[in-house]
Write a structure and sequence with these properties.
This protein has 334 residues and is of the alpha/beta class. It contains 13 helices and 8 strands.
């Protein structure tokens, strides 16, 4: 029987516990904490080989529709909101317009390079959504993207004629008042179609590799349906292409009790029928303090849920606090 996938996300040989140790010693230490799979370290072929010899799959992550550099290099990638203005920076977050052809193509090319050049067992898609910086109790929910190119694609694909609507504000008003259901469905399709292309690419190069997804931890009823209306992640459609879903259930950041973690997992499981490996929070932030006790409770809630087929922790660095590490070893040993 295979061990349940468990991993402290973000392995790096540069982190203090591994510095100065041989590759074999690093693998042994990481495994001794109860990790059974690895997220990170895939850039070093010798490290990957050592993890594989220890029976531990190695996974990578690909950031999809995010990055400030795109706004400068490809101005069309900066979304236009329903007030007719370019999307503003939200702290560190710079969301992209997922319909921009150059972005879509170059991210597929980056994925192809990743799975071709590295001996990985799977890749998890991150920032695979329409723009939203969601890690808050009351996140800003921007309505995007009402630029001319996106509106033209929407009209072409749906047959909806926006008539003489000339500017983003007028187009947004027309769409949100008269065609919100069609707009929401179409925007979800833009995410799902790219994921379908990503899956085909990964399976062509590495047929046995997993395609995972770090998903926004919202249920269908949350924020008036924003999982569909704002970020465009339709779990039911995505399940046709995604092997493992990892809802980012950072409960303290999002202002929830630990039990919320299981509630999100169970809905994702019910909607997709696919394995759920939640990724929980270990990082302690001033705006969302997390004690070792609270971290341990989150681990227990996730692992005891009937929906959990694995568990990830964001991040390894956050879990290195001695008290957190003891909580991890206890939970991962169960």
């Amino acid at each position: 029987m295979k061990p349940k996938p468990k991993s402290l996300y973000g392995f790096s040989s540069k982190l203090p516990p591994f510095a100065g140790k041989t590759i074999a010693e690093q693998v042994s230490l990481f495994q001794s904490w109860g990790n059974t799979v690895v997220f990170g370290g895939y850039q070093d072929p010798s490290m990957v080989e050592a993890f594989h010899q220890a029976g531990m799959p190695v996974y990578a992550e690909l950031g999809c529709f995010v990055g400030q550099g795109w706004w400068t290099r490809v101005p069309a990638s900066r979304p236009v909101t329903d007030d007719g203005k370019p999307l503003e920076t939200d702290d560190w977050y710079h969301g992209l317009n997922p319909t921009t052809p150059q972005v879509r193509q170059e991210r597929l090319e980056a994925l192809e390079t990743l799975v071709t050049e590295h001996d990985i067992d799977g890749v998890w898609l991150d920032f695979i959504r329409w723009p939203c910086h969601w890690e808050f109790p009351k996140p800003h929910l921007p309505r995007t993207s009402f630029d001319r190119d996106t509106l033209s694609l929407f009209g072409r694909d749906t047959g909806i004629d926006l008539g003489a609507t000339a500017d983003a504000i007028a187009a947004a008003r027309t769409i949100l008042e008269r065609y919100e259901e069609e707009w929401t469905r179409w925007r979800c399709d833009q995410i799902t179609s790219w994921v379908a292309e990503a899956r085909a690419l990964v399976k062509r190069i590495r047929p046995r590799a997993l395609l995972g997804m770090f998903s926004v931890p919202w249920r269908l009823a949350d924020y008036e349906g924003s999982i569909l209306k704002i970020v465009g992640q339709d779990y039911r459609a995505l399940a046709q292409h995604v092997d493992v879903f990892s809802p980012m259930v950072y409960h303290k950041m999002c202002g929830h009790r630990a039990e919320w973690i299981a509630e999100v997992m169970e809905e994702v499981d019910a909607l997709t029928g696919k394995p759920v490996w939640p990724i929980i929070q270990s990082v302690d932030q001033d705006s969302a303090p997390l004690s070792a006790k609270a971290y341990g409770q989150a681990l227990d809630v996730a692992l005891q849920s009937s929906a959990a087929e694995g568990i990830l922790v964001f991040t390894l660095q956050g879990a290195l606090d001695p008290a957190n590490l003891e909580m991890t070893k206890r939970a991962f040993a169960s």
